[in-house]
Amino acid sequence: MSAKDAGEAPARDASPTEPSTSVPQGLTQRAIGGMFWTLSGTGVQGLLQLLVLMVLGRLLTPAEFGVMGAAMVVVAVSQIVSQVGVGPAIIQRRDLTPTQLRVANTLSFSLGLLLGAVVYFNARAIAGFYRIPEVEPVLRSVAFLFPLEGLNTVGKALLTRELRFRVYAAIELASYVLGYAIVGVVLAWRGYGVWALVIATLAQSGVRTLAMFAIVRHPLRPSLDLGASRELLSFGFGHSLGQVGVVLSQQSDNFLVGRWLGPAALGIYGRAYSLMVMPTTMFGRIVMRVLFPLLSQLQEERTRLGNAYERGLAIVALVSLPISLFLWVVAPEFIAVVLGPAWHEVVLPFRLFTISLLFRMSSRMSDECAKAAGKVYQRAVLQWMYTGFVVVGAAIGQQWGVGGVAVGVSVAMAANWLSMVWLCRSVTGLTWARFGAAHLPAALLAGLIAVAAAPVAQAMRMAHLGNVAVLIAAGLAAAGMAFAAAHVRPDIWLGPHGTWAFKRAERLVRRPAGLTLAEEANPK
Fold this sequence. Notes:
By secondary structure, the protein is an all-alpha fold. 83% of the residues lie in helices and 0% in strands. The chain has 22 helices and no strands. The longest helix is centred in the middle third of the chain and has 38 residues, at 302-339.
């Protein structure tokens, strides 16, 4: 029953101001509660990732990072194909049967096993195409990730569908700490080189698989029921087409850098890119795990979907634009502190990538909005166009080294951002005027923060007080200016959507326990 139907039902059913059977109770509150738990988990994991990277950057060389990065290009593309979009199909469907779950599990594991075998037995050919012989044994090892991740697909989708964000965050955090962080750092310290990264990645996937099976119960008996397969794949195949485009757009530049400029250049480029996308990845997890299942429940309500999309764009801009300008200002000190003095060549591409942070984060919001509305095939077309932009930009830019590639890829990100906005405008009815107004407060706030941070950072550099001192002083100046602006004139520097989010966040911080209980009392 739709929300509209619920509003016309007898008194015992939901009224227009009450939740209907198709929309969970307290949708806004549950979204914020879900974001709280997801942000808590991803925030802690993001901080740990930064700390682990600081250690590994001092124990491993750019070439060793580059060899692992080359292997992960193949893994990232193949994993999307192996899962055929059944996870998002489980989340998006209104009704779900045990047979569909069995089919989803069978498809994901079978294709994961198949693609793992393909990568394993073609590792030499792939390494030859890369012109990096060292990547062959690494590829044979990481091929075992495919069946492991295939076994996780249904469990992850069910946790997301049921809005059990706290459990999901706990599993992700535990698998990273017990698997990747501890194993990777210990092995790197013992001199295992690139194999520290390989074994850590496999350990993380193994811990995640065991935890998922222990916590999430779903039917495991194999099934290839044709009816259930068609129902899942009608959405899942279109989603996978788009996701392959997404992953190719994210990895094709790495492939081209590795092939044309070598593993050391790929290590430098990969560190710059990964540091830029770290906040994007954290935000993407929140969007995919929280907003996608909730927006899916608004897919038939164009006005509400448009309002949610506009608010999401405004909040994304308020987060990404100030971070972009701040990181541009302190990029030399940030890289020196995080990776060490040997990685100074990362500063230029990292600085160039900070410009495109808004494009990356905002595109994720548009991507989930389009999926929630069922526009998976239109989305797939745009993602493949984006892949073409990235390939062309990287091919042209590589003539000027990793900095040139960063410029070309950033231009491609901007083009993808605008194309995804165009698609979501057709779904939500959002006008260009509302789109521009949603971004204006963030642009003003970012400029204010840059004005505050830049002179402080320059003064600290001239005083030769060290990298950490520059970061702390500039950070305090930026934070102080942002705090003052948010309290003095929130209507200008935050806008209506940012003010709403700020007040909600304050309320959540003051009463987290109450919101948690409300969330747990209504798991579905």
